[in-house]
Amino acid sequence: MTISLPALPYARDALAPHISSETLDYHYGKHHQAYVDNLNGLIDGTPHADADLETIVHASAKAGEAGIFNNAAQIWNHTFYWHSMAPNGGGAPAAGSAIAKAIDDSFGSYDAFKEAFATAGKTQFGSGWAWLVSNNGKLEVRKTANAETPLTDGVTPLITMDVWEHAYYLDYQNKRPGYIDVFLDSLVNWSFAEENLAKA
Ligand code: MN
């Protein structure tokens, strides 16, 4: 099986002005594509060659195959990130929705969640990701470094935000906190979180 680059769930200019088409040209078209190309080169002729992506993430993590894991996990994380955003997204989830209720139950309020998620993104030193996950029904905010993914921790990811510089540098330069605010206020896709929560 050859791993392929999944289609973006929207047009490359659909997140503008919050995230520009130029950023998506590089981030999706170059970075995400490069992880796919690298992984296909690395798994060719190995026992991973016939596996699906999620299986490769788990197996390479377990085996300590860093090169394969880094590329496979980055493919998975980026696909999850594109779906974690939507044109006209952002703000609190609809009152009364399952995800709104789960956030209130786990964090006390949406504002408390927002503060925890933004802090995770701001305090991830260097490259990485901020996550909202379901841990046996309890929602938690986590952060991971580089390609690390909570997928290998036995929890269910609900939303992720890429805080590698390539995610925001063209639009926000060094201002990661500005990008994080925009992610939460204008991009986060609560419908996707709710679909993932239903599977948790
Ligand atoms: Mn990225």
Bound ligand species:
manganese (II) ion
Which topology of the largest domain does CATH recognise?
A: minor pseudopilin epsh fold
**Which CATH class of the largest domain applies here?**
Alpha Beta
The total of beta strands comes to 3
Report on this model:
- With 200 residues, the protein is mostly helical.
- It folds into 2 domains: 21-83, Fe,Mn superoxide dismutase (SOD) domain (Helix Hairpins); 98-199, Iron/manganese superoxide dismutase, C-terminal domain (minor pseudopilin epsh fold).
- Helices cover 53% and strands 12% of the residues.
- The protein is built from 8 helices and 3 strands; from the N terminus they run H-H-H-H-H-E-E-E-H-H-H.
- Strands 2-1-3 form a 3-stranded antiparallel beta sheet.
- Helix 1 runs antiparallel to helix 6.
- It is globular.
- The model has no long low-confidence stretch (mean pLDDT 97).
- It binds manganese (II) ion.
- The site of manganese (II) ion has 7 residues, from helix 1 and helix 6.
Question: Could you give the topology of this structure?
Answer:
Layout: H1 21-43, H2 53-63, H3 66-83, H4 98-107, H5 110-123, E1 128-135, E2 138-145, E3 156-162, H6 165-172, H7 176-187, H8 190-199
Antiparallel strand pairs: 1-2, 1-3
Helix pairs in contact: 1-3, 1-6, 2-3, 5-7
Bound molecules: manganese (II) ion.
